[in-house]
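FORM 7B: Structural annotation worksheet

SECTION A. Query
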Amino acid sequence: MTKILEFLAELIIKNSKKITFFWLISLIASILFLYLSPVPFFEDELEGAKNTEAYKVEQIVKNEFKVSQESSLGLVIEGKDTDEELKKMLLSSFSEFSDVVDVKGTSKHKNQLYFIRFKPEIPVRTAQSISGKVREKISTWTKKTGIKTYLTGDSAFFYDTTNSSKKDSAKNEIIAMFLSFFILIRTFGGLLSAFLPIIAGATTLIYLNTIIRILGLQNNTVSMILNSLIGLALAIDYSLFVISRFKEELNNSKNPEEALKEALVNSGKTVFFSSLIMIFSVSVLYLPDVSSSKIVVKNIINIVAVSCLVALIILPSLAYWGRNILDKPKFISDYIKRNDKYVFWRKFATHITDYPKLYFLLSIFILGIVSYPILYMKIWEPLQTMAPKNSESRLGYETLEKDGWGGELLPIIISIKSDELIFSNKNISTIYDITQYIKKNQKVSSILSLTSINNDMNKVDYQNFYATAFSTGSLVFNQQVGYLVNQNSDSKSSIIYVYVKDLMDITEIHKIVEYCREYKSTDKNIEVLVGGVVARARDFSTELYRPVKEMLFIVFGGIFIILFIYMKTPILPIKAAFMNFLPIITAFGTLTAVFQFGFFSNVLGTSINDGISAMVPVVLFCILFGLSMDYEVLILSRITENYQKTGNVKESVIEGISKSSSVITGAGLILLSVFIPGIFSSSAIVQELCIGISSAILIDTTVIRLVLVPSFMMIMGKYNWWKFKF
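SECTION B. Predicted structure
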């Protein structure tokens, strides 16, 4: 590895101007390409978690009833609309629609609800993309009539979430770069030195988006957010490692060539192994059979690879080429040099190593307090609550809830398949029994089935009705009931829609799903399956955590091997893995305190939920494990260098902490400046991710790296529990 980095340094020294010119041309070309070929981003249909009950229902509804659960829109109209003009306008204006259904509630409502069905062949992303056009079309009707409307439903949820995320990402990038720039000036003492990491961050994001566009890689809301935040964070982080070491070597009176070689050999190893660990950490997200997590993995791997290449090739070329003006303007660098941070950190590290037991117990106590809420952490699927609070889709959904509607947009779907005609006496009997069974649940608002069209009819009445109507060929369905039978083939299957009372309570919907599944048909030739959007979302959550043991084994095992190769000792990789696990636990504790207990909700603008979004903990674990390892590798590499020179454990720890603390705290502040703006995002998932990462970084770069690590290493050395073997 050392020889490769030395060769790379020589290559950069000889060709720094050529590399800089290539960087400039490729950057301009990438910007032009992205500008001239804009592609609107929308979610693809979520896939995976197959062979579950909800998956089977999804396939039956899609293939036999020609309905996509993820492609639907709900139009909420304030006041009763008796004019058919709006429905006719929508059907004539959008060829993607198959029907606009006037939903009849079971009780009196102030508002009207239309259910807009898409044709089965219309892709999910198309359904999402036209939500804006549908709103524009509806606005012409609302201006003419003066009636308030809301377009909501699954497609509208994703449309609003995606557009909000794109705006938030752009805003967060600008704020993050602005704040990072001032932190970097304070860290480096020069404008150009501060500009270089910012340039590296912007370059990484532009290259990354170009690669995604050229290769046609899939993207989703979570991935888009992480692309922006992690790309910027890693690029600036890695740049900080390289530039700080390059400037340190220049200040040690080395010529530029020697300084660049020293910086690349030492910081380059840190960047390379940190990148390798980050890739290894997130790669386990590919194990669950969930398309969204696989998309996240692919894009993060690209982010890490691009960040690493920019930090090891482009950034050193720019630094070497502009080495004479790195400390400009001089009055800033002179002022910062007068405040020698090394002296402060050496005193700090000496004090910690003088009282290792005290500081070890103190840091463990602080970590325990922050982590305690994790004992109460729950996982849930946010679904409609993932949309921004003030978005039209969210407001429309909440309007339905206030008006007493019962989950018409997120129904529980029960599939009934038989070996004979669905209108037979035994099948009608089964459907009637299921309908009556579900009606007993007080949390159910209403049911739509073949035996729910008339409350005055009993089982025999329905059997006689369907037998007579079918035999005489006079079977006529009203608009809603007509969707309940598979009339396109053999009419041997039917579906039941179950609507819950509380639209916003996902936990209660889960209980009703389980209640429905408890029903057992007495006829073995009749298959009864329970699914729906909420049940399907639960499938994906379950699948995400199914291989958790394998994920932990691969992460810890793989990183142990990587660090063993790097550090030449078995003890330090074990310690590193343990230390990296701590900020993750504190992040989970913080998330629970904020989103379940409601701590700081007024200040942060966060909502109090039934749990943490299912995808957040597993994604946080993988990302934080990789991010935290940057600091671990940096500290241990510094301690390693000094131990090789002195052979003294205490002096090595003090010197390692003294020389790395300034970089670590600077990197921590920069990462906080990247992720903190996202805390005030309009998306709940973005808030959870940013609060989790920010809290972990804060704890990691203060309590863990500056107090727990040196005190723990001194205790290990004092009692000869291990020996340094590098």
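SECTION C. Observations
The beta strands are 72-77, 97-103, 112-118, 149-152, 379-380, 412-417, 444-448, 493-500, 527-532, 612-613. The first strand starts at residue 72 and ends at 77.

SECTION D. Sign-off
Analyst initials: ____
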